[in-house]
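Subject: for your reference before the review

Hello V.,

The reviewers asked for a structural picture of the protein, and I figured it would be easier to keep everything in one thread rather than splitting it across files. Below is the amino acid sequence we used in the manuscript, unchanged from the supplementary table.
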Amino acid sequence: MNSWTRTGPVVVEVDGSSDGLRVVDYAAQDALHAGADLVLVAPFYNYGTYPPMTPPHQQASPSEDAAAALRDAADQVRRRYGRDLVIKNIAMEGSRLKVLRTAAREARVLVVGRDHDNGPAALISAQGNLALAGHLRCPVIVVPTPWKSNPAEHSIAVGIDGTPLSLAAVEFAFRTAADRRAGLTVVHSHHLPYRLPADDAWTERAGLTVAETLAGWDEEFPQVKVTRLLTTRPVVAALARESEHAALIIVGAHAGPLPIGDPVARRTIAELPCPVAIVAHHVTSAERDQQRREIPGRLDTFAPIT
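And here is what came back from the structure prediction:
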């Protein structure tokens, strides 16, 4: 996230549905916590389908529908939060990915909704939002449309694995916890799918992993109360348990157009009942050089020709 604009606006996708207004409300609260502007974005295609035998002039155009959805969303924000927020509306023609990528170019975070999907449909939807996050330089918060905020649920949890994938997620977690004046739970899972002899040393190794990952952030954000959770439960199960009383779960993911190697992030988005932030890790030049040094050279064997 080396080009993440940490002081930019909060950008939220507007889909025109009543459930989608809850997503807008979440983004408005996030903007207020951060002292940021709010940008409402409605993607559309400038063509539509009309029912048979219905004159086209009786139907609003897609651009008009997008503009109406933006007006409704802005009106709701004004009614609930007054004039404390600076709001900007953007209706843009194009695919969802293209429009949101353009609108979130200078954003501190992008907020999108998650439909009432279950099973394979939920995983497919989660993969779409994961791919979206992989294209962006800012975190993406996926809000389940049935979700309602609860004042008693204001803590934040972040899952870490000790790899560079966790670094950007941890930074976002500390900054968000500081903005919201919330506690932060750091979850590290030491789960193995097979049985091993008793190993009491895993807690020491896990504690060292967490300490190395959090190094420096405790000092930069001393106001954030941190709880370290070391567990042998599967990581998604551990995060699901935290989501029962959390306002936000944060996970890292790989950057790139097809981040199919992130099953934990995909399942977390699809299964958890609370908002989930996807923080894509963009590999730095130093990490790329390190990876090249760690890849062994190819050993070729040549047989003499006789």
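For the response letter, the relevant points are probably these. Strands lie at 10-13, 38-44, 87-93, 109-114, 140-144, 155-160, 184-189, 226-231, 246-254, 276-281. Residues 101 and 136 are 6 Å apart (CA to CA).

Happy to draft the paragraph if you're swamped.

O.
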